[in-house]
């Protein structure tokens, strides 16, 4: 877990800054700035649209008495994608955009659930049930 935090807090910003500088050297500073602003705006629009869809699906599932598992997974993924899209940088934007693709979002959720289950089996995570 410590390595993951190190990579997220130290490594990712270094990679993002490097890519922004390289991009500015290749296509220019203004295009990189416009790309950064454009991806944030596009991400905001897409997250809003998909968020509204997830809320409607959640309401529909609850109304029909079904467990809203897919709706909750979609909402959680969008909560992760939103700050990634707002963070300046190409890597975070790419990860955020990937989370906006439903099949990839669901695959990421299944992978995360498997990791949580493995951690629980090893005793690294305790899940309290009421």
From TrEMBL:
| One Pfam family in the UniProt entry | FxsA
Q: Which UniProt keywords apply?
A: Membrane, Transmembrane, Transmembrane helix
- Spans through the membrane: 27-47, 68-88, 94-113
Name recorded for this polypeptide: FxsA family protein
Species, as recorded = Parvularcula lutaonensis
Q: What is the lineage of its organism?
A: Bacteria, Pseudomonadati, Pseudomonadota, Alphaproteobacteria, Parvularculales
């Amino acid at each position: 877990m410590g390595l993951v935090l190190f990579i997220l807090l130290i490594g990712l910003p270094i990679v993002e800054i490097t890519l922004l500088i390289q991009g500015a050297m290749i296509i220019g500073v203004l295009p990189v700035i416009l790309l950064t602003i454009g991806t944030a705006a596009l991400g905001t629009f897409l997250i809003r649209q998909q968020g509204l869809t997830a809320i409607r699906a959640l309401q529909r599932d609850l109304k029909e008495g079904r467990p809203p598992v897919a709706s909750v997974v979609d909402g959680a993924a969008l909560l992760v994608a939103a700050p990634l899209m707002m963070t300046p940088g190409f890597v975070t934007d790419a990860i955020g955009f990937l989370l906006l693709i439903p099949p990839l979002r669901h695959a990421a959720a299944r992978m995360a659930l498997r990791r949580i289950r493995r951690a629980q089996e090893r005793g690294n995570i305790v899940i309290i049930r009421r």
